[in-house]
């Protein structure tokens, strides 16, 4: 049975329909990437899963439970943690306080704690008393990932973590992923960077204009098929 | 020497204004809500303490201790049932709802307690004073000022040393992201207003024991509180204390020159600060 | 765009305009057959309506929630009294002075209050109003803290009062009420007409754009700072005249009555909120409800204000558009349409532009 799934998920962004019946599944321990161009509906998908957008209860299921209509704080408490697009550090909190916010509600013993997060990203320990906003973009992204890990989540949702970062920094951040996966967490990575997504994911969903246009294992998908699913088949 | 005395009395009076202001500052800092009924809630708490004193024969401090949790609950419920519904990008609904609440409270108090002015009896404390060199300082004013410092320290501790304070600041920064961390903004806001009402109750104890009050006393207290908050810089707790002191000193000095100028002098001090430092004395780095 | 025409008129607005014209003629002729107390009631309704329209212009259209309009009512009224007492100025001319005086103190008020963001603007205007009240209370020539009456010779010299006295064959005090009523009618009609005209001009549309979205309005070139100034000063001017008129009719003034936050701001806010903020119809409906409640609950003292405040809260929570908002949402009724609508012209063939 899958840990997290969406069933016929539709979503609206204002009056604009952003999702048209999206079905996505995630198994225990799996890493899934969702790729697609701007406006493909990736953000609406993430917001629907995390509860920022309220849906019909059955449209999102987690561990056999219908969670589509739950508010974000309750979904978080169940074990779905978010690394939001744009990092979204709290500017009036220090690095360490930002990390502590991750386990504000969900205090579950597990592999992740302040010490292990600092072990994963040693630079954060050095700068733990500085305001989060004083850090570089890449370091802020590390805080955001560490903050999500602090709750020892069963599912980690990473929304556009490479957006606005230099390639070398992106590489640094993705270098942490094997360690995150080793602890058994399931991960959903939303990316515009197709190459990066293919490298980390067990399976890939490609979205275009609110629909899943392609899915499968990275090794099974040809470059052309992805190109067509991403940009639309050349007419 | 007479001016030293005047300024010192003003500083102590400033402690009272800081107590009026700290609750307002707290609530604004966390949810950007300006509660126009803040002054009337202070007066409500003063009547509550007065009732406990006269009906149960309690001392004012014990009565205030009982009033604390009651007022916390009042604040919590008010936020949960009413104010949370009107929070949002539009400033109009919260302003108008709290303005309506102010009018309702004033008239409900008038109906319940008549328009007569009252005072919470504090026995010998009312007139007690301690000599400091050639100057004599009232015990109640000293207690007021001490309380203002203690309340500021306590709020500072809650804000910067506890998980609740962390959640306060995170929610103030970004409620959506805070909710992704498991924070329920509606509960955080209710908690904040509850705490603000605890501060309001402490303010009410000193308002009621030091001077007469009646159901229409609230709006003027709101204005002093507001001036202290703006002078201090929005959301800065120590700034709010400093702002209260500035208003207090301006009032006593003004009154010394001409008794009719007391209130006016406080307002003028506020306008001068607004002119010179529009963001207050200790502005937050970001908003 | 052949086949379409831009219009703001609706059938309801045309019927309303015709009805309003009839109503206006009746209102002008009313003193010939109405009782003095009815004239006084109508005076009260008309002046409150005027104040409500200006506050609505500020808050409903300009997004400027002022809790300090009593500064302009009071200062306008005091200027009229001061002019009559110190310079023997005819009170009718004093009305203009009232408006100008309010306009003059509105400049520093705006200067200070605009420094305060959002909600703090509200209390900022209140502080300024307090400063004006406390300062005027120091003005001994107009009675200081206890106030004063309009001098008898100034009252008797009011332009037009003598003519009314003869024409209606009535006592001079009743004649003054009739004069005040006509002036209030003129002021209310000019205010509503002026605001309606303004909202339909390019500037007025810009104001509506500003209310809906400051960023978007700025991006199409609306100078929000300047619009705020214009709206604030216009409202102060009108509010000052209304204040002068109210106390001219009253004949007595004191700092507490002239700068009453309850009378000149709280009531006005409730009228607008209950009737429907951000519409011209709302305050009209609101003032009628307000007057009805006042008549009904006059004997219950503070209960009346509790009901009014409670009603304001309930409306804000459950029907933020006010009663007129409820009504026009249900029926699509608009008496003062501002939106420009595209209408298909009937005569031109369809599908002309593919």
TrEMBL record, chain A:
The keyword ATP-binding applies. Keywords: Amino-acid transport, ATP-binding, Nucleotide-binding, Transport. InterPro entries: AAA+_ATPase (IPR003593), ABC_transporter-like_ATP-bd (IPR003439), ABC_transporter-like_CS (IPR017871), BCAA_Transport_ATP-bd_LivF (IPR052156), P-loop_NTPase (IPR027417). GO terms for molecular function: ATP binding; ATP hydrolysis activity; branched-chain amino acid transmembrane transporter activity. PROSITE patterns: ABC_TRANSPORTER_1, ABC_TRANSPORTER_2. The gene is livF_7. This is High-affinity branched-chain amino acid transport ATP-binding protein LivF. The keyword Transport applies. GO terms for biological process: L-amino acid transport. It comes from Palleronia abyssalis. Residues 4-234 form the ABC transporter domain. Belongs to the ABC transporter superfamily.
From TrEMBL, chain B:
GO terms for molecular function: transmembrane transporter activity. It is found in: Cell membrane. The keyword GTP-binding does not apply. It comes from the Bacteria. The gene is livH_6. GO terms for cellular component: plasma membrane. Belongs to the binding-protein-dependent transport system permease family. LivHM subfamily. Pfam families: BPD_transp_2 (PF02653). This is High-affinity branched-chain amino acid transport system permease protein LivH. It comes from Palleronia abyssalis. Keywords: Amino-acid transport, Cell membrane, Membrane, Transmembrane, Transmembrane helix, Transport. CDD domains: TM_PBP1_LivH_like (cd06582). Signal peptide: none annotated. It is a multi-pass membrane protein.
UniProtKB/TrEMBL annotation, chain C:
Its main location: membrane. The chain crosses the membrane at residues 12-30, 42-64, 71-89, 95-114, 178-199, 229-249, 261-291, 303-327. Keywords: Cell membrane, Membrane, Transmembrane, Transmembrane helix. InterPro entries: ABC_transp_permease (IPR001851), LivM-like (IPR043428). It is found in: Cell membrane. It comes from the Bacteria. It is a multi-pass membrane protein. It holds the Pfam family BPD_transp_2. One of its GO terms (molecular function) is branched-chain amino acid transmembrane transporter activity. GO terms for cellular component: plasma membrane. This is High-affinity branched-chain amino acid transport system permease protein LivH.
């Amino acid at each position: 049975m899958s840990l997290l799934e969406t069933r016929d998920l539709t979503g609206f962004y204002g009056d604009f329909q952003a999702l048209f019946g999206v079905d996505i599944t995630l198994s225990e321990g799996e890493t899934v990437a969702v790729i697609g161009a701007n406006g493909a509906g990736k953000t609406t998908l993430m917001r629907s899963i995390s509860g920022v957008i309220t849906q019909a209860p059955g449209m999102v299921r987690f561990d056999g439970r219908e969670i589509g209509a739950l508010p974000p704080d309750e979904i978080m408490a169940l074990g779905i943690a978010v690394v939001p697009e744009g990092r979204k550090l709290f500017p009036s909190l220090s690095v360490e306080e930002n990390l502590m916010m991750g386990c504000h509600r969900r205090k579950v013993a597990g592999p992740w704690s302040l010490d292990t997060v600092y072990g994963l990203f040693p630079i954060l320990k050095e700068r733990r008393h500085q305001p989060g906003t004083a850090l570089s973009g890449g370091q802020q992204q590390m805080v955001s990932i560490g903050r999500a890990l602090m709750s020892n989540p069963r599912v980690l949702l990473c929304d556009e973590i490479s957006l606005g970062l230099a390639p070398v920094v992106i590489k640094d951040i993705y270098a942490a992923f094997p360690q995150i996966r080793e602890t058994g967490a399931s991960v959903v990575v939303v990316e515009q960077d197709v190459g990066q997504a293919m490298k980390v994911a067990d399976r890939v969903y490609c979205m275009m204009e609110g629909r899943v246009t392609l899915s499968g294992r990275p090794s099974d998908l040809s470059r052309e098929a992805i190109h067509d699913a991403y940009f639309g088949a050349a007419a | 020497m007479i001016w030293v005395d005047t300024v010192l009395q003003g500083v102590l009076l400033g402690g009272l204004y800081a107590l009026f202001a700290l609750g307002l500052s707290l609530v604004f800092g966390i949810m950007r809500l300006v509660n126009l009924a803040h002054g009337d809630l202070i007066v409500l708490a003063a009547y509550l303490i007065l009732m406990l004193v006269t009906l149960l024969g309690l001392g004012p401090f014990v009565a205030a201790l009982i009033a604390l949790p009651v007022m916390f609950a009042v604040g919590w419920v008010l936020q949960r049932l009413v104010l949370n519904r009107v929070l949002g990008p539009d400033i109009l609904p919260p302003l108008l709802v709290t303005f309506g609440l102010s009018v309702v409270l004033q008239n409900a108090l008038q109906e319940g307690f008549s328009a007569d002015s009252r005072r919470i009896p504090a026995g010998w404390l009312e007139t007690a004073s301690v000599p400091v060199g050639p100057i004599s300082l009232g015990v109640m004013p000293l207690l007021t000022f001490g309380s203002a410092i203690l309340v500021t320290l306590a709020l500072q501790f809650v804000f910067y040393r506890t998980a609740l304070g962390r959640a306060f600041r995170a929610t103030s920064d970004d409620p959506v992201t805070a909710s992704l961390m498991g924070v329920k903004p509606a509960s955080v806001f209710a908690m904040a207003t509850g705490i603000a009402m605890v501060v309001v109750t402490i303010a009410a104890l000193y308002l009621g024991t030091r001077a007469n009050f009646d159901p229409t006393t609230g709006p003027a207290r709101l204005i002093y509180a507001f001036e202290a908050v703006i002078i201090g810089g929005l959301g800065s707790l120590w700034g709010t204390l400093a702002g209260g002191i500035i208003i207090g000193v301006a009032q006593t000095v003004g009154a010394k020159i001409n008794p009719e100028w007391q209130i006016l002098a406080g307002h003028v001090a506020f306008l001068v600060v607004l002119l010179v430092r529009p963001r207050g004395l200790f502005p937050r780095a970001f908003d | 765009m052949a086949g379409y025409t831009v219009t703001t008129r609706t059938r309801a607005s045309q019927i309303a305009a015709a009805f309003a014209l009839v109503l206006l003629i009746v209102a002008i002729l009313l003193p010939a057959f109405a009782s003095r107390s009815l004239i006084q009631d109508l005076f009260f309704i008309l002046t409150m309506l005027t104040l409500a329209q200006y506050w609505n212009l500020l808050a409903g259209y300009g997004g400027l929630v002022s809790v300090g309009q009593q500064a302009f009512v009071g200062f306008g009224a005091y200027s009229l009294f001061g002019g009559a007492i110190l310079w023997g100025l005819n009170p009718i001319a004093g009305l203009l002075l009232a408006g100008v005086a309010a306009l003059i103190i509105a400049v520093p008020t705006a200067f200070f209050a605009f420094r305060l963001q959002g909600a703090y603007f509200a209390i900022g205007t209140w502080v300024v109003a307090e400063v004006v009240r406390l300062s005027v209370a120091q003005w001994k020539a107009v009675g200081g803290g206890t106030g004063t009456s309009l001098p008898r010779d100034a009252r008797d010299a009011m332009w037009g009062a003598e003519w009314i006295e003869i024409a209606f064959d009535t006592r001079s005090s009743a004649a003054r009420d009739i004069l005040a009523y006509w002036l209030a009618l003129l002021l209310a009609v000019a205010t509503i007409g002026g605001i309606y005209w303004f909202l339909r001009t390019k500037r007025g549309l810009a104001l509506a754009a500003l209310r809906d979205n400051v960023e978007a309005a700025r991006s199409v070139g609306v100078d929000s700072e300047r619009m705020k100034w214009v709206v604030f000063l216009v409202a102060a001017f009108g509010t000052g005249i209304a204040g002068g008129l109210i106390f001219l009719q009253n004949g007595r003034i004191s700092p507490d009555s002239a700068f009453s936050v309850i009378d000149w701001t709280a009531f006005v806010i409730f009228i607008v909120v209950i009737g429907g903020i951000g519409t011209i119809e709302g305050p009209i409906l609101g003032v009628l409800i307000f007057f009805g409640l006042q008549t009904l609950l006059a004997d219950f003292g503070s209960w009346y204000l509790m009901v009014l405040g409670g009603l304001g809260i309930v409306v804000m929570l459950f029907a933020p558009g006010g009663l007129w908002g409820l009504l026009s949402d249900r029926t699509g009724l608009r008496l003062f349409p501002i939106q420009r609508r595209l209408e298909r012209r009937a005569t031109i063939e369809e599908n002309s532009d593919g």
